[in-house]
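May I ask for an example protein's residues together with how it folds?

___
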Amino acid sequence: MKITRYRVDGVQDSPPEPLPQQLAREDGALWVDMTGPTEDDLRTLRDVFHFHPLAIEDTLKQRQRPKLEEYEGYFFLTIHAAQPGRERNARLAWDELDIFFGPRYVVTVHPQAVPALEDARARLAHAAPGLRAGADYLLYTILDAAVDTYFPVIDRVDAALERLEDQLFRKPSARTLDHIFTLKRTLLQMRRVAAPLRDLLNGLTRRDLPLIQPHTLVYFRDIFDHLLRITDAIDTHRDLITGALDIYLSVISNRLNEVMKVLTVVTAVFASLAVITGVYGMNFARAFPPFDWPYGFAAVLLGMAGVTAVMLALFRRKGWL
């Protein structure tokens, strides 16, 4: 558990007072960050903050969609921060973050370290003293840091789409199809996270909430605007990926048609030659040209070459070659 108090006159890490006394103070905003949570953390949430058991239960469950729930005197939020992987194909993981937001405190609960929270701490250290002393601005900073992690993922998808377009028109392969479906899954995951979070911010900005001051409301609207841009970009990229999949299937189909066309020409040529050799090789009493003629075999070969040339000329004239 990491406790930080943000006041107008400075930032105080790990205040010496017990947590119940810190909650009773009215100067500044208190940020309690829990990684786990452990049994002691759960006891603190239950006995010190007196949070609802259902909200505490949600902190133990992962893979939840972003949501906003209102309880008596506080709000419970579930959000996600993106954690892009190192692969160039835009794979990513998600950090789930549960937040309790009260009049003078913000409690964050997460199962592992979240880089977005460290970014939020750095922003709060340089924020205006009058703003960071409010719990609503503290909540805004955490939400803004989490939403900002989506933009690098969008940039990765942009770069991956450019590489994908080059592959489609040069030499598409099974690996290209794998990249297409990887990007599609990534955008689907982002859509499942960004769209509910957008609705969550819309609820915060459009409701008359006593916990959010009017001068802080404009900051939440800025996050909402960012989420609108992100969801629009996701929808645009999904359309582009759908088009890329159609192009891939068209290119593969055209390539197959070209292969089948060549195979058809080869089959037709050798079929005609097989007819000639089959008829000439039949056990007639007298063949034409005769078997005993010295130039008979050469004449047959010459005739086969002539038939082949005529067929290839016809195929080329029709545009099959």
Remarks:
- The longest strand covers residues 74-84.
- The domain at 2-252 is CATH 3.30.460.20 (Beta Polymerase; domain 2).
